[in-house]
Amino acid sequence: MTDTVYVKGLAELQKFLDQLPAKIEKNIMRSALRAGAKVILEEARARVPVSTPNAKNQRLYGAYSGALRDSLRVTTRYSRGKITASVKAGGVTKRGADVFYAQWVEYGTRPHVITARNKGYLSFAGGAYKAVNHPGAQPRPFLRPAMDTRSHEAVIAVGRQIKARLTKAGIDTEEVTIGADDL
Prior knowledge:
By secondary structure, the chain is an alpha+beta fold. It has helices at 10-18, 22-47, 55-59, 67-71, 102-107, 143-168, and strands at residues 73-79, 82-88, 91-92, 98-99, 112-115, 122-124, 127-129, 131-134. The chain contains 6 helices and 8 strands, in the order ααααββββαββββα.
């Protein structure tokens, strides 16, 4: 189920931003989108599954308990006049863990066969095998529910950050009111 968020005053806000120099607009929008994405990031961190530590997963791929949570981050990008902010999961963490499995946790996996590479063998349950059947994994979403539950607050955070940055830049924002009442 996807909630729809309605925002009033976007046309007026865009008209106001069009009057600003491009560099100020870019910096204001980048920080505003980052503020909104941080709201989603906080919720995703609270929802992400964290495994119980054990000796094996401490060594495997440099992983550790909480590596998936630590891989969550906010990124912003400016390309072709468009600014975007994203909450991303996966990649290499600061502690060196390669969290290649983030999408498998979010979306789950179907049953599949895992085969050994380079004419080698897989070690599993004390035996050596050329291939093993993996039963698949149930999805354990954390990013989508974070967006679903906190999108309203993220939009408010974006508006508040825009207003704060405009005021800091010495631009009168008395006419621009962004908050829960405007949504």
